[in-house]
Here is the input.
Amino acid sequence: MSRDPAPGELTLHGYWRSSAAYRVRIALNLKGLAYQQAPVHLVKDGGQQHAAAYQALNPQGLVPLLVDGDVAIPQSLAILEYLEETRPQPALLPADPVARAQVRALALHVACDIHPLNNLRVLKYLADPLGVDEAARNAWYRHWVETGLASVEQGLAAFDGHFSLGDRPGYLEACLIPQLYNARRFDCSLDGCPRLLDLASRCEALEAFAQAAPEVQPDAQ
Amino acid sequence: MSRDPAPGELTLHGYWRSSAAYRVRIALNLKGLAYQQAPVHLVKDGGQQHAAAYQALNPQGLVPLLVDGDVAIPQSLAILEYLEETRPQPALLPADPVARAQVRALALHVACDIHPLNNLRVLKYLADPLGVDEAARNAWYRHWVETGLASVEQGLAAFDGHFSLGDRPGYLEACLIPQLYNARRFDCSLDGCPRLLDLASRCEALEAFAQAAPEVQPDAQ
Here is the structure.
């Protein structure tokens, strides 16, 4: 988990089912960047993200973390921006500032308003100490996903029939597809999301997405 | 709330106590940009963010929203990036990609891992339907703030005695100060955060922060 990578070599510390790590895997694949994986099991050993060796690398105690030579960068969206600035081609974001803002606003809606509420650590806190039972936890999960994806769906009208970069996916799809994966895993209703489902089916046909899928990661169980 | 601004004129749709709107007010002030305010009361009228006129501008149904001429941008961090790209001077982010990533990672830790859990809509859901009582809701609030700020504090070691841009604050401080405001409002323990408190005291002495404070906004009650 804490081996030192050679300078300039990319190592992704993540967990197969972490949707934030999944975003970064897609982004690395879209940019055609080779990377090693250093799995951090979020449940085993009381959560390996709390281990001293990992905390020394990432005091935030969360995944993902990208190590680039001697630089360690936490937070999936900070990693996407860093990759875009240090390995600009192929771009993940459109060139126009307004189009970039539209993409970031939709990605941040997923990253700030949907995903954090359904993180493993949050679901655990709902169970204990709050004593919320499994049915109510699942309803909580679906509530935030369904509310959030309904407005994502409206935002996707700008991209009807296309990807966020016209003929290819990027930053936006790297955030949307992992959230859709979670939505399906928890049986959220996607009836109101035909644009999202159409975009997803086109993404999922691409190698960059297929190879980033949770089930094909080395630490998948 | 929905008046049309003149082209190129900036209008911030926000709420005095929204810490995401507070981030944008600080950023606008740091860049010396004039802007109008269009208050969206998050409680009155069942939440004015749900009104049809506001939803037409922002289908995400959240504040803040920045309107720049005929462009509407939701999500505070998308707004900060947009301002940085369209009005680059004075910069909110450092120039070096690694330093930019460090700043964004700390800001995103606040924006993704602390703030969303303590949003008004989340606290309301905890109360109803989950039936979590006020004491347990306050403990929830403090848990996420204290856990998150403890790791932010470690990340601030890189800036000891300085601002994130050396001699002046920027993107990082625009995200930290509103979170600290919330922490104080909910009596969170800040004993482990001397760096944050030192940085905050230097920010709060500056006009850009003083004029962005919730209590001096036109809609403050």
